[in-house]
Design brief:
Elements: H1 2-16, H2 32-35, H3 39-50, H4 64-67, E1 71-72, H5 85-90, H6 114-127, H7 136-161, H8 177-180, H9 187-201, H10 212-215, H11 221-236, H12 265-283, H13 302-315, E2 322-330, H14 332-338, E3 353-354, E4 385-387, E5 401-403, H15 411-416, E6 417-419, E7 422-423, E8 437-438, E9 459-461, E10 470-472, E11 475-477, E12 482-487, H16 488-503, H17 507-519, H18 525-532, H19 542-556, H20 562-569, H21 573-576, E13 580-583, H22 590-593, E14 596-600, H23 615-620
Antiparallel strand pairs: 1-3, 2-12, 4-5, 6-9, 7-8, 10-11, 13-14
Helix pairs in contact: 1-6, 3-6, 6-7, 7-9, 7-11, 9-11, 11-12, 12-16, 16-17, 16-19
Amino acid sequence: MKFIKILPVILLLGFFSCNKFMDIVPDNIATLDQAFQLKVTAKKYLFTCYSYLPKLGSPSSNYGLLGSREIASPYPGSQAPGIPNSILELGYDYQNTVEPINNYWDGANGGIALFQAIRTCNIFLENIGKVPDIEDVERKRWIAEVKTLKAYYHFLLLRMYGPVPIVRENLPVSADVEAVRITRAPVDEVSSYIAQLIDEATPDLPPVVYNQREELGRITAPIALAIKAYTLTLNASPLFNGNTDYADLKSKDGQALVNTTADNSKWAKAAQACEDAIKAAHSAGFRLHYFNAPFDLNAISDSSRKLMDIRGAVTEQWNPEQIWVLTNSSTGELQRFCAPRNEVYSYTYSLWAANLNACEIFYTKNGVPINEDPSWDYANRYTALKTVPAEQRSIMKPNYTTSSFNMDREYRFYADLVFDGAAYFMSQRPSETNLLYLPTLWGSPSTSGGLSRVSFTGYYPKKLVSWKTTGSGSSYTPDSYAWPAIRLATLYLMYAEAVNEAEGPGAKAYQYLDSVRARAGLHGVVESWANHSRNAAKPATKEGLRSIIQQETMIEMIFEGENYWNMRRWKRLDLMNRPITGWDFQQKTTADFYRLKTIYTPHNTYRDFLAPIREYALQVNPNLVQNPLW
């Protein structure tokens, strides 16, 4: 396996420097020819191309989890087992140009070496034709998989840095100095190249994985088409489509790297790409997840079942909504950070807190924003206290006193969050007459770990914790599901967004948007706004429906890291600068606990829409230009 690590490194060095290498191969190191001498060794190299996929289910790898500030963690330097300070720092505006946090350009400081990943893919594509003992159909499939991976790695770079170099093929080690001094390609060109790779790959990809024992997680046609949909939606979004803030972002030869003139036809292309991806997913059997209760589970209420419909979309591994699951990314550690201590088990990290301010995004029970529903007391949401009615026992503890903020919200609020007095449905306590209710007042079981093991907002991101996770006393056994990188619900919402931008409001835009809402127990947007909003006509205008779709997306994708990117491609500084707020969690009485506290206030500017390139990379390669304001 040594060739897997060594060859990409050689190509990496050759790509970025003008050093020459001696033509010497140590006796015990495999050569490139040996890597592709047989099918069995070529397959190992295929898996090396997969090995660069980001571990999005790892709390130390998915910086979007904390970077979005939907989840907050204690300040950098505080106790956070296994989490690099760089991950914590990103949520507190510590990004810099000397040693960028999560540097995917160079593969440093928590980042993945994505250019090395692309070059590894190129090595495979350049040499797979040499393998003699492989059927042509399988060879074509492998090529298609690697082309898709190559497209995906370019997409990850595009999303993070904007205009990036396109690595169509590897440069030889003998390339001269100027040849290795690569330049950034315009965003439109990068997007077109990604789409081209997907178009080339899709015909040779299977619709589903047939050999599930050995191939789960491998690229399929629905995955490839979803990556294309993500790419074209990103390219059509305000960040890259008519963004005059980037008028001065040009290459050293004066070429504009972002199109500052809005082109609405990009949204039409994005809508078509989303539709193609959805059709492929439907044909392959993908559908929105609904809870399928195991035979040994006691009867549960309609409310509990609805909460499990929502919660399981992420945590129920291999459910029919999950188009691409990253098998390299287990979530055991992630759940330890998100799960609160309680009377059943008293040991988890319990450090990750849901930002109360971000939780304002959830609708009322009527399916409209809390500031639009005249029946919901928006003005007193932080100060009023209410008693939980007995009929809501599946959601909160009956006759318990809680904040008005927690009352009369949509099901996703209760499925995704656990807070003082909230029901905590779990496999060990699934009975409706014996549900676990979580107390979070100071001195309760959830605070048994003290300041180093407690949510400092009073809310935990329950969405990421599987109901099958078990524990007893100091033991804790997470149900380590693999991370779903692409869900069908995401494609539905992107399609609604693209159609609205391309054509305006109408049945096509409402269709899949309403499907996502129906799974959450809500009526369609037209009906909900007509009956429950002060702005009944909102879904009938492009601007109004845009706002609805963006809020629906923020709700549906909350705590998954995706909204870190959504806020940026929409240019929503108002969302990026939401303060981190919570209750006065060290208080022992209800009246004292429910006092709003501001923990941190961000100060993002449009500089923060794109990540910086490391200063050293700019010094080594004078043909590169830095992103604006860095």
